[in-house]
Design brief:
With 274 residues, this protein is α+β, with helices and mostly antiparallel strands. The chain contains five helices and 13 strands. It folds into four domains: 30 residues, no CATH class; 59 residues; 82 residues, Roll (Pdz3 Domain), CATH 2.30.42.10; 61 residues, no CATH class. α5 links the parallel β12 and β13. α1 runs antiparallel to α2. The C terminus is likely disordered.
Protein backbone atom coordinates (compact mmCIF):
# COMPACT_ATOMS: atom_id res chain seq x y z
CA UNK A 1 0.00 0.00 0.00
CA UNK A 2 2.97 2.31 0.36
CA UNK A 3 3.64 4.94 2.92
CA UNK A 4 1.09 7.56 3.82
CA UNK A 5 1.06 10.45 6.22
CA UNK A 6 -1.75 12.44 7.75
CA UNK A 7 -1.97 16.21 8.13
CA UNK A 8 -4.54 18.81 9.04
CA UNK A 9 -5.26 20.97 5.99
CA UNK A 10 -7.65 23.92 6.26
CA UNK A 11 -9.07 22.39 9.43
CA UNK A 12 -9.68 18.97 7.85
CA UNK A 13 -7.86 15.67 8.37
CA UNK A 14 -6.12 14.78 5.11
CA UNK A 15 -4.31 11.64 3.93
CA UNK A 16 -1.41 12.05 1.47
CA UNK A 17 0.22 9.11 -0.32
CA UNK A 18 3.75 8.78 -1.75
CA UNK A 19 2.62 10.19 -5.09
CA UNK A 20 1.40 13.37 -3.41
CA UNK A 21 -2.29 12.60 -3.84
CA UNK A 22 -4.32 14.17 -1.08
CA UNK A 23 -7.60 12.75 0.17
CA UNK A 24 -9.83 14.33 2.79
CA UNK A 25 -10.88 11.96 5.58
CA UNK A 26 -14.42 12.43 6.76
CA UNK A 27 -14.79 12.60 10.52
CA UNK A 28 -18.04 13.05 12.38
CA UNK A 29 -19.04 12.78 15.98
CA UNK A 30 -21.43 14.15 18.58
CA UNK A 31 -20.99 15.12 22.21
CA UNK A 32 -23.59 15.91 24.81
CA UNK A 33 -22.24 18.92 26.71
CA UNK A 34 -23.11 19.40 30.35
CA UNK A 35 -23.04 23.21 30.33
CA UNK A 36 -23.67 23.55 34.06
CA UNK A 37 -20.68 21.34 34.86
CA UNK A 38 -18.56 23.18 32.33
CA UNK A 39 -19.29 26.55 33.90
CA UNK A 40 -18.60 25.19 37.36
CA UNK A 41 -15.25 23.80 36.17
CA UNK A 42 -14.20 27.07 34.50
CA UNK A 43 -14.96 29.05 37.66
CA UNK A 44 -12.95 26.57 39.74
CA UNK A 45 -10.12 26.72 37.20
CA UNK A 46 -10.03 30.54 37.41
CA UNK A 47 -9.99 30.29 41.20
CA UNK A 48 -6.98 27.91 41.16
CA UNK A 49 -5.08 29.81 38.46
CA UNK A 50 -5.26 33.05 40.44
CA UNK A 51 -4.06 31.27 43.57
CA UNK A 52 -1.04 29.85 41.76
CA UNK A 53 -0.08 32.64 39.37
CA UNK A 54 -1.21 36.03 40.64
CA UNK A 55 1.75 38.35 41.13
CA UNK A 56 0.79 39.12 44.75
CA UNK A 57 0.80 35.96 46.91
CA UNK A 58 -1.57 37.71 49.33
CA UNK A 59 -4.05 38.43 46.49
CA UNK A 60 -4.38 42.08 47.52
CA UNK A 61 -5.50 40.97 50.99
CA UNK A 62 -8.67 39.26 49.72
CA UNK A 63 -10.33 36.21 51.22
CA UNK A 64 -10.18 34.47 47.85
CA UNK A 65 -11.80 31.21 49.00
CA UNK A 66 -14.76 33.08 50.50
CA UNK A 67 -15.25 35.06 47.28
CA UNK A 68 -15.07 31.89 45.20
CA UNK A 69 -17.71 30.18 47.31
CA UNK A 70 -19.90 33.28 47.15
CA UNK A 71 -19.83 33.49 43.34
CA UNK A 72 -20.15 29.72 43.06
CA UNK A 73 -23.52 29.97 44.84
CA UNK A 74 -24.94 31.91 41.87
CA UNK A 75 -24.17 29.21 39.32
CA UNK A 76 -27.50 27.35 39.68
CA UNK A 77 -29.30 30.50 38.56
CA UNK A 78 -27.25 31.04 35.38
CA UNK A 79 -28.53 29.41 32.21
CA UNK A 80 -26.51 31.10 29.46
CA UNK A 81 -22.93 32.14 28.75
CA UNK A 82 -23.75 35.83 28.38
CA UNK A 83 -24.67 36.00 32.07
CA UNK A 84 -21.84 33.63 32.95
CA UNK A 85 -19.21 35.90 31.45
CA UNK A 86 -20.53 38.70 33.65
CA UNK A 87 -20.27 36.52 36.76
CA UNK A 88 -16.72 35.49 35.83
CA UNK A 89 -15.76 39.10 35.22
CA UNK A 90 -17.24 40.21 38.53
CA UNK A 91 -15.39 37.43 40.35
CA UNK A 92 -12.00 38.23 38.81
CA UNK A 93 -12.74 41.93 39.11
CA UNK A 94 -12.57 41.56 42.89
CA UNK A 95 -8.78 41.49 42.44
CA UNK A 96 -8.84 45.07 41.15
CA UNK A 97 -6.04 44.18 38.74
CA UNK A 98 -5.54 44.68 35.02
CA UNK A 99 -5.94 41.98 32.38
CA UNK A 100 -8.54 40.00 34.28
CA UNK A 101 -12.11 39.17 33.35
CA UNK A 102 -14.34 36.84 31.38
CA UNK A 103 -15.29 36.99 27.73
CA UNK A 104 -17.79 35.11 25.59
CA UNK A 105 -17.64 35.12 21.80
CA UNK A 106 -20.35 32.90 20.31
CA UNK A 107 -19.92 31.44 16.85
CA UNK A 108 -22.65 30.46 14.41
CA UNK A 109 -22.02 27.76 11.82
CA UNK A 110 -24.45 29.32 9.33
CA UNK A 111 -23.71 32.98 10.07
CA UNK A 112 -22.53 35.63 7.64
CA UNK A 113 -18.79 35.69 6.96
CA UNK A 114 -17.39 38.34 4.65
CA UNK A 115 -14.29 37.23 2.78
CA UNK A 116 -11.50 39.45 1.45
CA UNK A 117 -9.76 39.83 -1.91
CA UNK A 118 -6.51 40.81 -0.19
CA UNK A 119 -6.52 44.31 -1.68
CA UNK A 120 -6.45 47.91 -0.49
CA UNK A 121 -8.66 50.42 -2.25
CA UNK A 122 -8.60 54.11 -3.14
CA UNK A 123 -11.26 55.53 -0.81
CA UNK A 124 -11.40 58.76 -2.82
CA UNK A 125 -12.48 56.95 -5.99
CA UNK A 126 -16.12 57.86 -6.74
CA UNK A 127 -16.87 54.70 -8.71
CA UNK A 128 -18.48 52.77 -10.10
CA UNK A 129 -16.34 49.85 -9.03
CA UNK A 130 -13.34 49.62 -6.73
CA UNK A 131 -10.01 51.24 -7.57
CA UNK A 132 -7.11 49.12 -6.33
CA UNK A 133 -4.43 51.07 -4.50
CA UNK A 134 -2.33 48.11 -3.33
CA UNK A 135 -2.14 44.34 -3.67
CA UNK A 136 -1.40 42.90 -0.22
CA UNK A 137 1.63 40.60 -0.31
CA UNK A 138 0.82 36.87 0.02
CA UNK A 139 -2.86 37.56 -0.71
CA UNK A 140 -5.06 35.94 -3.40
CA UNK A 141 -3.73 38.23 -6.16
CA UNK A 142 -0.05 37.77 -5.26
CA UNK A 143 0.85 35.45 -8.09
CA UNK A 144 3.01 35.80 -11.18
CA UNK A 145 0.13 35.20 -13.60
CA UNK A 146 -2.21 37.93 -12.35
CA UNK A 147 -2.94 40.88 -14.60
CA UNK A 148 -4.37 43.01 -11.82
CA UNK A 149 -2.27 46.03 -10.88
CA UNK A 150 -2.63 49.03 -8.55
CA UNK A 151 -4.77 51.63 -10.29
CA UNK A 152 -7.01 49.07 -12.00
CA UNK A 153 -10.78 49.08 -11.44
CA UNK A 154 -12.66 46.03 -10.17
CA UNK A 155 -16.09 46.18 -11.84
CA UNK A 156 -17.77 42.87 -11.00
CA UNK A 157 -17.65 40.03 -8.51
CA UNK A 158 -19.12 36.78 -9.84
CA UNK A 159 -20.71 38.75 -12.70
CA UNK A 160 -22.54 41.13 -10.33
CA UNK A 161 -21.71 44.75 -11.07
CA UNK A 162 -20.36 46.88 -8.21
CA UNK A 163 -22.56 49.97 -8.07
CA UNK A 164 -23.50 52.62 -5.53
CA UNK A 165 -26.85 50.89 -4.95
CA UNK A 166 -25.37 47.81 -3.25
CA UNK A 167 -22.99 47.00 -0.43
CA UNK A 168 -20.26 45.35 -2.48
CA UNK A 169 -18.92 43.42 0.52
CA UNK A 170 -22.13 41.36 0.44
CA UNK A 171 -20.83 39.87 -2.82
CA UNK A 172 -18.04 38.23 -0.81
CA UNK A 173 -20.32 36.74 1.85
CA UNK A 174 -19.35 33.10 2.50
CA UNK A 175 -16.81 33.14 -0.34
CA UNK A 176 -13.82 32.21 1.83
CA UNK A 177 -11.63 29.71 -0.09
CA UNK A 178 -14.23 29.42 -2.87
CA UNK A 179 -13.51 30.07 -6.53
CA UNK A 180 -14.72 33.60 -7.27
CA UNK A 181 -14.75 35.39 -10.63
CA UNK A 182 -13.31 38.93 -10.53
CA UNK A 183 -13.83 41.26 -13.49
CA UNK A 184 -11.55 44.30 -13.76
CA UNK A 185 -9.97 46.66 -16.26
CA UNK A 186 -7.17 49.10 -16.81
CA UNK A 187 -8.83 52.57 -16.62
CA UNK A 188 -6.76 53.57 -19.66
CA UNK A 189 -8.51 50.96 -21.81
CA UNK A 190 -12.12 49.75 -22.19
CA UNK A 191 -11.19 46.05 -22.29
CA UNK A 192 -12.31 43.89 -19.37
CA UNK A 193 -10.16 41.14 -17.85
CA UNK A 194 -11.28 38.22 -15.72
CA UNK A 195 -9.53 36.10 -13.14
CA UNK A 196 -10.72 33.39 -10.78
CA UNK A 197 -9.27 33.64 -7.29
CA UNK A 198 -10.04 32.23 -3.86
CA UNK A 199 -10.80 35.00 -1.34
CA UNK A 200 -9.42 34.72 2.17
CA UNK A 201 -11.01 35.28 5.56
CA UNK A 202 -10.81 38.65 7.30
CA UNK A 203 -8.68 36.96 9.94
CA UNK A 204 -6.16 35.92 7.30
CA UNK A 205 -6.22 39.43 5.86
CA UNK A 206 -5.47 40.85 9.31
CA UNK A 207 -2.45 38.55 9.49
CA UNK A 208 -1.20 39.78 6.12
CA UNK A 209 -1.76 43.39 7.14
CA UNK A 210 0.28 42.74 10.29
CA UNK A 211 3.17 41.45 8.15
CA UNK A 212 2.81 44.51 5.92
CA UNK A 213 3.01 46.79 8.96
CA UNK A 214 6.12 44.96 10.20
CA UNK A 215 7.83 45.47 6.83
CA UNK A 216 6.98 49.17 6.89
CA UNK A 217 8.29 49.64 10.44
CA UNK A 218 11.51 47.74 9.72
CA UNK A 219 12.14 49.84 6.63
CA UNK A 220 11.50 53.07 8.55
CA UNK A 221 13.81 52.09 11.44
CA UNK A 222 16.52 51.02 9.00
CA UNK A 223 16.26 54.32 7.13
CA UNK A 224 16.18 56.60 10.18
CA UNK A 225 19.09 54.79 11.87
CA UNK A 226 21.21 54.48 8.72
CA UNK A 227 21.11 50.73 9.13
CA UNK A 228 22.52 50.74 12.68
CA UNK A 229 19.32 49.85 14.52
CA UNK A 230 17.58 46.47 14.27
CA UNK A 231 13.82 46.11 14.74
CA UNK A 232 11.54 43.40 16.09
CA UNK A 233 7.92 43.55 17.20
CA UNK A 234 6.44 41.37 19.92
CA UNK A 235 3.03 40.43 18.57
CA UNK A 236 1.77 38.85 21.77
CA UNK A 237 2.83 37.78 25.22
CA UNK A 238 3.08 34.09 24.38
CA UNK A 239 5.59 31.39 23.56
CA UNK A 240 5.17 31.65 19.79
CA UNK A 241 5.87 35.37 19.71
CA UNK A 242 8.81 34.96 22.08
CA UNK A 243 10.41 32.35 19.83
CA UNK A 244 9.77 34.48 16.75
CA UNK A 245 11.56 37.43 18.36
CA UNK A 246 14.53 35.27 19.35
CA UNK A 247 14.71 33.72 15.90
CA UNK A 248 14.70 37.07 14.14
CA UNK A 249 17.17 38.57 16.61
CA UNK A 250 19.78 35.82 16.55
CA UNK A 251 19.41 34.92 12.88
CA UNK A 252 19.15 38.34 11.27
CA UNK A 253 19.91 41.17 13.67
CA UNK A 254 22.49 40.41 16.38
CA UNK A 255 25.45 40.10 14.00
CA UNK A 256 24.50 43.00 11.75
CA UNK A 257 23.21 45.76 14.05
CA UNK A 258 24.65 47.73 16.95
CA UNK A 259 21.31 48.31 18.69
CA UNK A 260 17.92 46.62 18.82
CA UNK A 261 14.52 48.28 19.01
CA UNK A 262 11.89 46.02 20.61
CA UNK A 263 8.32 47.24 20.13
CA UNK A 264 5.66 45.75 22.38
CA UNK A 265 2.78 48.12 21.65
CA UNK A 266 -0.56 46.70 20.52
CA UNK A 267 0.25 43.24 21.90
CA UNK A 268 -2.40 41.16 23.58
CA UNK A 269 -0.66 40.92 26.97
CA UNK A 270 0.12 37.77 28.90
CA UNK A 271 2.89 36.20 30.94
CA UNK A 272 6.11 36.81 29.02
CA UNK A 273 8.91 39.02 30.30
CA UNK A 274 11.30 40.69 27.87
Amino acid sequence: MGKRFFVVKEGKLTKIDEAGKAETIGVSGEMILNTDAEREYILAHAYRQVQKKFYDPKLHGLDWKMLYQNYQSFLPFISNNYDYQELLSEFLGELNASHTGGRYSPSFSNGDETASLGLLYDESFAGPGLKVSEIIAEGPFTKASTQLKPGYIIEKIDDVAITDSIDWTSLLNRKNKKNTLITFRNPATPNEMEEVIKPISLGEENGLMYKRWIRMMKAMVHKLSNGQLGYVHVQGMNDGSYREVLMRYWAKISKKRDLLSILVSMEGAGCMTI
